[in-house]
Amino acid sequence: MKLAKRVSALTPSTTLAITAKAKEMKDQGIDVIGLGAGEPDFNTPVEIIEEAYSAMLKGQTKYTPSNGLPALRKTICDKLLKDQGLTYSPGEVVVTNGAKHALYTLFQAILDPGNEVIIPTPYWVSYPEQVILAEGVPVFIEGYEHQQFKVTPEQIEAAITENTKAIIINSPSNPTGMIYNEQELKAIGEICLKHDVLIVSDEIYEKLVYDGAKHVSIASLSPELKEQTIIINGVSKSHSMTGWRIGYAVGNKEIINAMTNLASHSTSNPTTMAQIATIKAYELGDGPVEEMRVAFEDRLNKTYERLISIPGFSCVKPNGAFYLFPNVTEAAKMAGYQNVDEFSTELLEKANVAVIPGSGFGSPDNIRLSYATSQVQLDKALERIEQFMKASILS
């Protein structure tokens, strides 16, 4: 049977491919350390779990409105007002089956064939694929390492054409962990307003910031930028609720209504008890979030110093998310490999350490390592990488 062109052109997720290979090796009894995880290693706070269980016992197991429970949408509005000083109505919120689904539905709602979406590199692996699925065209601009992987207003303006519909800003970033500051966002925002480019602001890692860094939503910088921005967020990273699949989009009511209509014919609604649990997550405040953030910051500081001491590894220190994104081109050459993809494969097969090659993020010189695992495992993994390098150089 011939498949549709839209799926035939898709590139498999590099992250999932490496994770599957690592799991296969583990199932064979091999002691693999996985540094590919895109989720916190903490369990969901018990109060949230208990809230969902209680809701199920009370019979709250039925359909909800396609855009989510009114109480949850109100809670999201309250959260945005408290955290960012942003005022939205529940009608400007759609709750989705994870932030990934919010992005997918948004692109389906706003893109016509040939519409362009500017995507800074390095990028999260699903951005270009989702644009392509909506018959849009990804336009890549490079966030250079010497610029902390950030793009400039000049780069953005040079990439804008009559077909440009949107730009994606992911801050804090997956995979680099970089954060745009207020001045940088203002400058980007001016270009987007000048050319009427919709800003898709992916803020899923907003709570995971370090070394005194501050997350700023571009929508909070002016009323005009608020109207020009769709915020994407959720509780997957902030509350360690990846499997609960609750995300949301907030912004222009016409776009949100279109997303809601699309959801009504595709997913009906996000899982009811997971929505109720999300209300509880936001009612708890930042206590559980801060506990996890502090642990990640401690791991970052310890792991970063050890990582950059490994021969051939260089790394811009991130101040958000839970990833390190070192440049390993020199390490790959020193170890006798042609490219970073080959280096990453050999690292898994010979050192039993799973990392994600940067080619999947549009950055073939780098690898992504997640420190969303215990410090014991991180130390063990770095020791293996160091021994792998020493053995490769000697041979």
Automatic annotation (TrEMBL):
Q: Which InterPro entries match?
A: Aminotransferase_I/II_large, AspAT/PAT-like, NHTrfase_class1_PyrdxlP-BS, PyrdxlP-dep_Trfase, PyrdxlP-dep_Trfase_major, PyrdxlP-dep_Trfase_small
Q: What is its EC number?
A: 2.6.1.-
Per the record, the domain of life is Bacteria
Q: Enumerate the Pfam families for this protein.
A: Aminotran_1_2 (PF00155)
Q: Which segments of the protein form a coiled coil according to its record?
A: none
Give UniProt keywords alphabetically: Aminotransferase, Pyridoxal phosphate, Transferase
Cofactors required: pyridoxal 5'-phosphate
The UniProt similarity line reads: Belongs to the class-I pyridoxal-phosphate-dependent aminotransferase family.
The protein in question is named: Aminotransferase
